[in-house]
Amino acid sequence: MFKIAILGPESTGKSTLAQTLAEHFNTEWVPEYAREYVENLKAPYTFDDICCIACKQIEQEKAFENSVSTDKFVFFDTELIITKVWFEYKYKTVPSFVTERLKTGFFDLYLLCTPDLPWESDAVREHGTDREFFFDWYKKEIEQTGKAYVIVKGTGNERIQNAIGFVTALLIK
Fold first, then answer.
1. What is the third-level CATH fold of 2-172?
2. How far apart are CA 158 and CA 152, in angstroms?
3. Closest by Cα among 6, 8, 34 to 19
4. Which pLDDT value is given to residue 117?
5. Tens digit of pLDDT for each residue in 99-121?
6. In the chain, how many H helices and how many E strands?
7. What is the distance between the alpha carbons of residues 151 and 162, in angstroms, rounded to a whole number?
8. E-assigned strands of the chain?
9. DSSP letter assigned to residue 88
10. Which of 8, 42, 67, 98 has its CA 20 to 30 A from that of 122?
11. pTM
């Protein structure tokens, strides 16, 4: 089973892409937990909240570590790199359990979404004017893993077809 993470700045279509790819390839996808968690808070999130989010993300990954599923793919809508960057950006520190987990090299491929889609504001999103900054940071972090990644761009169906092409190429290898 190929484990594929979808990353990118806020409002770059990650959730739509994860769900659409899962439907296209008739497989599972793991929704973004951070959004659900933060939307249910009664106060602004804290460092401890981000730790809870990271723990849940790790738990979700571990559920697929030794999977005997016959599915060829599983898609994750976001992953720990985004959480690591958030820790560094907001709190200037990253818990060791996050950096240790990232060293495991869990994912087989990263789909990095460009910020070429229009910004859509919502109650959880914070950095509409900094999307290029975060895109570059995520790219650097992915490159440090040594894992394969591709950059997904385009709008609407073009973006989806680009991603389908990248994922289909895994089957050919």
1. Rossmann fold (3.40.50)
2. 10
3. 6
4. 77
5. 999 998 899 999 999 999 777 76
6. 7, 5
7. 9
8. 2-7, 28-30, 73-77, 109-113, 148-152
9. I
10. 98
11. 0.91
Q: What is the distance between the alpha carbons of residues 70 and 61, in angstroms, rounded to a whole number?
A: 17
Residue 94 to residue 79: CA distance in whole angstroms? 15
Q: Say which residues have a Cβ less than 8 Å from residue 102's Cβ, sequence separation at least 6.
A: 80, 81, 84, 145
8 A C-beta contact, residue 78 and residue 95 = no
Residues, the chain: 173
Q: How far apart are CA 72 and CA 51, in angstroms?
A: 31
Q: Residue written as tokens 């591709």?
A: 150
Distance CA 1, CA 70 (A): 7
Cα separation, 82 vs 59, whole angstroms? 16
What dihedral do alpha carbons 170, 152, 124, 18 form, nearest 10°? -30
